[in-house]
Inverse folding.
């Protein structure tokens, strides 16, 4: 996920640099937004990964509780 975000960020950065030839201000804004989007994307992918790990850990704990109770 982070690799994909990084590739898209690099694409945005190069697009921003190319757009600077046409419109310096617009290209600069595109460059800054691409960098910000990469940082936000990495943070959100980390949050999603942590959420998945928490859900799996809860599932393991519930399984252990169920196994301790036993079926009679």
């Amino acid at each position: 996920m982070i690799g994909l975000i990084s590739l898209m960020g690099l694409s945005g950065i190069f697009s921003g640099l190319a757009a600077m030839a046409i419109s310096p201000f617009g290209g600069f804004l595109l460059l800054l937004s691409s960098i910000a989007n990469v940082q936000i994307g990495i943070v959100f992918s980390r949050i999603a990964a942590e959420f998945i790990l928490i859900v799996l850990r809860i599932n393991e704990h519930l399984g252990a509780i169920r196994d301790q109770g036993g079926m009679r």
Summary: The chain has a mean pLDDT of 91. The chain has one domain: 2-69. Residues 2-69 form one domain. Residues 52 and 58 are 10 Å apart (CA to CA).
